[in-house]
Structure formats: C-alpha cells, structure tokens
Specification:
InterPro entries: ConA-like_dom_sf, Kinase-like_dom_sf, L-type_Lectin-RKs, Legume_lectin_dom, Prot_kinase_dom, Protein_kinase_ATP_BS, Ser-Thr/Tyr_kinase_cat_dom, Ser/Thr_kinase_AS. This protein has about 675 residues and is an alpha+beta fold. It is about 25% helix and about 25% strand. The structure holds 2-acetamido-2-deoxy-beta-D-glucopyranose (NAG) (6 copies). The site of one 2-acetamido-2-deoxy-beta-D-glucopyranose has 5 residues, from loops.
C-alpha cells in the first residue's frame, strides 16, 4: 500500500514538473510573469528569490550573474530568424554614486561563460571581445560610461560580438501621448520594460524602452538593420547577463516573454513579483543624510545657543522686584557697555578704592562717568540702592549728580555726570599738570564746604559723606569743586554682621573716634574736611610716607609750624607766595580746628562756611598742644602702622585711597 502511494506521488511530481518543459521545448516560446516556475539555467551570483524575482546581481562588487533559458532555441536559417521578446528589469543603486556595469539580453551559442570579466558585462573577456567567432548578439543596458568601449552614460546599445556597440542611444522612450522622447534613468531602481523585435524580412532589429506601466511606444529607441544569419548559429541560447563593477548595484528581471514564432505576448504587469524594499545602503544613505542634517542642525542650535548665551552672559544683570520703582534710574548694562566702548582700558578716567571709573557717551551724546564697584554681598543692597537713588535726587552745584545705577552679579555700576577736569588730587600732585592758583583753590574749598553743608543740613535727612578727600573732589568745566562718591562708603557699612564692623574711609582723613567706634558722624566728615583743607593749602597729602619723620602727619606738621609762629611755611611752595595771606592763614588754622581730636571742639559745616566767607571770626587757636590737645595719639599710630593686616588698602600707596577697616566685634 505504502509503495503504491509513493509511486503515485512520484508520478504526480514527474507530471507536474514536465509541463513547462514540454511547452517551451515544442514551441520555442515562453512567458514568465515572475520566475518561480521558470526553467532557467543560472550561474554566477544569479538567483531566483522566493517571490519569483530573478536577481542577476546583488550588492557584491565585481560579480557576474547569468540566467539563460535552459534549452537552445532553433535559429536555423531554413526557417525564419524573426524573434520577439520583452522583459521587465530594474537596476537598483546601492551606493551614493551610481555605477556598476549593467544588464544585457543575449543570444549566445553557449549558456556557460568561463574566463569572463565583469567589465565585459559577463559576456566577453579581453581576448575574445570583438571576434566574429563569438556569435553573440546582445542588447546592453548600461548605466555607466566606459571609455574603453567608446560609449556614453546611461545608454541602450546593440552589440554584435563586441562590447563596442554597433549602435547606441541614451535611455529614453517615445511617449505616444506626448509625441516626444522622454529620457529615463536606467539605474533609478524603477522597473522598466524593454522590447526587442527582429524581422527577418526587413532584417531590422528594433529595441524599445519604456517605464513599466507605459504601453509599448510607437517608435523604437533603436532600429538597426542587421543580417542576423551572419551572426547566429543553428542552436542558440537566450538569456541575461549582468555584472557589477567596483560600485555594486542590484540587477533584477521581473518577467520575461520570448517568442520565436510570432509576437511575444505582453507581460501581465500586475502578476510580476515586487522588488525588495529599498533598504540596505539606500536606507543607510538616508540615515547618513539624516545624521548629517541632525549634526548640522544640532551644531547650528549649539552655535546660536552659545552666541545667545554669551550675549546674555555678556550683558547679564541682576534685577530684583524691589527695583521696579527705580526703573528710570536703572541703566541697562548693554547701554553702559556700548557707552564705554566695552569698558575699554582707554576709557578709564579714574581708579580708586571703590573701583575703576570709565568715561562713556550715551547715544544722546551725553557724557557720563561709570563707576564699577565690585560688591559681592546681596545683603543690604536694597537699602543701599534706595539710599543711592534718593541721593540721586540731591541737587547742588557742588555735588556730582548721580544719574542712575545698574547691578550685575558681584558688581554695582553707578552712573554720574561726567566731570571734564577729573579729580582734584591729580591737579595737586601730578607733576607736569598745570597746578591750581590760590584763587581757584580757595574757590574749590568754599564750593566743597558748601556741598558738604548741603549734605549735612540741606536734605530731609543727614547725609554723611564718609570719604572726603582730594580724590573725591571733581572739577567741572568751570573748575568748581564737586563732591562725588557721597554715601558710597555706606555700601561697606551695610556689610555688617554681629562679629565685625567694617569701617570705610581713607587713612589720614579718618578721625580717631571713627577708627575706634566705626561710627561716622557729621563731625568725622568735618575732620576729613579739615585734613582736606590742609591738603589743598599745603599741597601735601595728610600722611606723607616718603617725607621726613616730622612731616609724616600733615596736621602735626602744620600745628608745629603754627606753634613756632611760621604757619605760612606750611603753604604750598608751588604757589611761590602768590596767595592772599589772610585766606591762607584762615584755611590752615581752620584746618587745624576741624582736625581737633575732640569732635565737640570741631565746628560744624555751617560754621566752617561762615569762617570761609568771612562772616565769622575764627576762635583763638592755642599754639601749644597742651592747651589745644594732641592730634595724633599713639593709638592712631598703632592703627596706622602696626596692624596693617586689619585694613585693606589700594595697592598704589601714592593714592590716598579708601580703606575698609575691619574691627573685631564682641
Ligand atoms: C550576493 O549573493 C551571493 C551569492 O548568493 C552571496 O554569497 C553574497 O553574500 C550576496 N551579497 C550580498 C551583499 O547580498
Ligand atoms: C531546426 O529547425 C529546422 C527546420 O524547422 C530543422 O530542419 C532542424 O533540424 C532543427 N534543428 C534542431 C537542432 O532542432
Ligand atoms: C575568454 O572567454 C572564452 C569564452 O568563454 C574562453 O574560452 C577563454 O578561455 C577566455 N580567455 C581568457 C583569457 O580568460
Ligand atoms: C521597427 O521599427 C520600424 C519603425 O522605426 C517599423 O517600421 C518596423 O515595422 C519595426 N519592426 C519591427 C520588427 O518591429
Ligand atoms: C545575409 O548573410 C547571409 C550569410 O552571410 C548571406 O548569404 C546573405 O546574402 C546576407 N543578406 C543580405 C541582405 O546581406
Ligand atoms: C507566440 O506567437 C504566436 C503567434 O503569434 C502566439 O500564438 C503565441 O501565443 C505566442 N507565444 C508567446 C509565448 O508569446
């Protein structure tokens, strides 16, 4: 029973497999809409894929693939040599560049090709190319130009025994509808159909190309008279040859119809196998393009981000809610940056204990001075800004007007009116500059006194300057003295905590009680003004370190001159005696009075003004220290010299700079 079944089974298999064989053999005609059942002889890397697609070559380089009809076709000259064939092919590029030889339909006496080279489309080699003994007719579909065969790019050619085409033309088709030729890209991955018709009577070979769904064009691409009997032998094989070059591409045949005894039937396009999805390197190519795009976009974003970030960083400010009420006084850092040409060193007009001062020009052409104060603490900033702004409302011809402020991280910028002549100390001490005559000096002293009086009494609250000195007196266009930096010392006062008290001021201008208690009063301002008067009159700094020992402290030296009855010796030698003696004596004696060690003994600024204006007579000043009191106690010296670590001072000793003294608390 089992054997019967087995032999029945065997019979069935034999029967089924013999059908296409018989059909093709008898008729010399066949049609394959897909190659699943095809009777083909394959070699090289050609293979029939599971879906019936004939793959002649894949993406391997320098490979050949052949697919020939198994059986020879009778091309006997006794009968007609006419034949007709058409097939659908696809050339799928796999690389960024096109390339890789092509496909040829061939009529050949042999279906096996040995010693063949890939650049000869899998049909010839160097030694037999061009020999009439080849008996090969080929229609080549060649996407690349090969100079050795004198051909052109993307062309269809008729080859007889030789890869140098008898005739060739760029890939194109005649559109029956549009009545014109339309060019085609062979290696586009799009399936196309090729018709090859030979008529024995006309001895004409027609080759017609068209996209897959386009009906056969009325006009062939190539039409060439050929005497086929000169080429073919009686028994010939028909099929395809394809090869890949250094740049590989996939070559496919989707369907094929051949007829030796009439017009080849049209292929059923709908039944043809589909091409594999365009993946592999094509996908890779898209991935590569995307990757490039993403990298470029990310880079662009990063650059824009960085530019934006640095621009923001460059002009970054600190702005808090409470500042909204000072809106009109708030300058943007950007505007200051532009006004001072980016805080160029060339624009620096002063450098003191609080920081550098830059000249700037606003877009309105208004000249400003910008003081950059480094200040890390956020503590007390609110109060300080409030105070600074309210002081900005102080209007007096001997005060430098504060226009506004700006805050950045660790930095406070104060904007003032620009004073063209700079600070007084530069006139007093700088060699080479024209020095000031007595009239100007006396005028400046009276102006500063009036400004200070205004601070002390002319405002709804008492404003203590805390840092009167020649360096803080600026000269306007008319050489009037104007006080600047008032209230700035408070910035450091706000840095208080329970442990330490930070006192700001300048050595030589600080009253003893200020260094002791750290408490600034109008009398400590008067003390500093006294030192300032002596400075202007004598042209010496309150503490002259380079001078001889007895001249170390100006006030002591002036008092010594006074007690010796030679007070005019203390006048500035640069004046060369050109001064009003009474005024000089008045200034020196008033300077001494204001420098009295006892705050209560000092006049207030209103009195000082009266003395300077001659509206009141100076009280008698004793000329012995026993009755007047000493100016400099040993304690002052201790403070000045023995505890240098307890205060911070500008690195330039020639500038009597602002110092901050840390006094241990508790
Ligand atoms: C191409 O086909 C050959 C033979 O089938 C195979 O060995 C090779 O791996 C294939 N190459 C690619 C890139 O698919
Ligand atoms: C080819 O066909 C001719 C005539 O039809 C015949 O005489 C010849 O024997 C055939 N040749 C082969 C190889 O079948
Ligand atoms: C060239 O091809 C022919 C035909 O296949 C073959 O007989 C011959 O040996 C080949 N020559 C070389 C040099 O490979
Ligand atoms: C070939 O094309 C020409 C037109 O160029 C046409 O007259 C001829 O009939 C065609 N021959 C075949 C066999 O298709
Ligand atoms: C075609 O070639 C054959 C064989 O070489 C020859 O006998 C015949 O005369 C040729 N026909 C034409 C039209 O050239
Ligand atoms: C071949 O041509 C004949 C005659 O026109 C036709 O009857 C037959 O169907 C064709 N066969 C194929 C496979 O094209």
């Amino acid at each position: 029973m089992a054997t019967v079944l087995r032999s029945l089974h065997l019979l069935m298999i034999l029967y089924i497999s013999s059908i296409p064989l018989n059909f093709a053999q008898d008729e010399s005609q066949f049609i394959y809409n897909g190659f699943s059942q095809a009777n083909l002889y394959l070699d090289g890397i050609a293979e029939i894929l599971p879906n019936g697609l004939l793959q002649l070559t894949n993406s391997s380089n320098q490979k050949l693939g052949h697919a020939f009809y198994q059986l020879p076709i009778n091309f006997s000259t006794i009968s007609s040599l006419s034949f007709s064939t058409n097939f659908v092919f696809a050339m799928v590029p796999q690389e960024l560049e096109h390339g890789g030889h092509g496909i040829a339909f061939a009529i050949s006496p042999s279906r096996s090709f040995n010693g063949i080279e890939s650049q000869y489309l899998g049909l010839f080699n160097r030694s037999n190319n061009g020999l009439t003994s080849n008996h090969i007719l080929a229609i080549e579909l060649d996407p690349v130009k090969s100079p050795e065969f004198e051909d052109i790019d993307n062309h269809v050619g008729i080859d007889v025994n030789d890869l140098r085409s008898l005739e060739s033309a760029p890939a194109a088709y005649y559109s029956n509808e549009e009545r014109r030729d339309i060019s085609l890209e062979l290696i586009s991955g799009n399936p196309m159909q090729l018709w090859i018709d030979y008529d024995e009577v006309e001895k004409l070979l027609n080759v017609t190309l068209a996209p897959i769904r386009t009906p056969k064009p009325n006009w062939p691409l190539l039409s060439r008279p050929i005497n086929l009997s000169e080429i073919v032998l009686e028994s010939m094989y028909v099929g395809f040859s394809a090869s890949t070059g250094t740049v590989a591409s996939d070559h496919y045949i989707l369907g094929w119809s051949f007829n030796k005894s009439g017009q080849a039937q049209s292929l059923d396009i709908s039944r043809l196998p589909t091409l594999p999805p365009r993946r592999k390197r094509n996908e890779k190519r898209i991935v590569v393009i995307w990757a490039h795009l993403i990298v470029v976009v990310v880079l662009l974003l990063m650059i824009t981000g960085a530019v934006y970030y640095f621009r923001r960083k460059k002009y970054e400010e600190v702005r808090e809610d409470w500042e909204s009420e000072y809106g009109t006084h708030r300058f943007s850092y950007k505007s200051l940056y532009k006004a001072t040409k980016g805080f160029k060193a060339k624009e620096i007009i002063g450098e003191g204990g609080f920081g550098k001062v830059y000249r700037g020009t606003l877009p309105s052409n208004e000249q400003i001075a910008v003081k950059r104060v480094s200040h890390d603490s956020q503590q007390g900033m609110k109060e300080f800004v409030a105070e600074i702004i309210s002081m900005g409302r102080l209007r007096h011809r001997n005060l430098v007007r504060l226009l506004g402020y700006c805050r950045r991280k660790g930095e406070l910028l104060l904007i003032y009116d620009y004073m063209p002549h700079g600070s007084l100390d530069r006139f007093l001490y700088s060699n080479g500059r024209r020095h000031l005559n007595w009239l100007q000096r006396f005028q400046i002293l009276k102006g500063v006194a009036s400004g200070l009086l205004y601070l002390h009494e002319g405002w709804e609250q008492i404003v203590i300057h805390r840092d009167i000195k020649a360096g803080n007196v600026l000269l306007d266009a008319e050489m009037n003295g104007r006080l600047s930096d008032f209230g700035l010392a408070r910035l450091y006062d706000h840095d208080t905590n329970s442990q330490t008290t930070l006192v700001a001021g300048t050595v030589g201008y600080m009253a003893l009680e200020l260094t002791r208690t750290g408490r600034a009063t109008t009398y400590t301002d008067v003390y500093a003004f006294g030192a300032f008067m002596l400075e202007v009159a004598s042209g010496r700094r309150p503490i002259e370190r380079m001078a001889m020992a007895e001249e170390l402290v100006l006030v002591d030296w002036v008092f010594e001159c006074w007690s010796k009855g030679t007070i005019l010796r203390a006048s500035d030698p640069r004046l060369e005696g050109n001064y009003v003696v009474e005024e000089m004596v008045l200034v020196l004696k008033l300077g001494l009075l204001c420098s009295h060690v006892n705050p209560a003994a000092r006049p207030n600024m209103r009195r000082v003004m009266q003395f300077l204006n001659g509206d009141a007579d100076l009280p008698n000043i004793p000329n012995d220290s026993a009755s007047f009191g000493t100016f400099t106690s040993s304690e002052t010296f201790d403070f000045l010299w023995s505890t240098p670590s307890s205060f911070v001072q500008s690195s330039d000793p020639s500038m009597s700079s602002t110092v901050s003294i840390l006094k241990g608390g508790g």
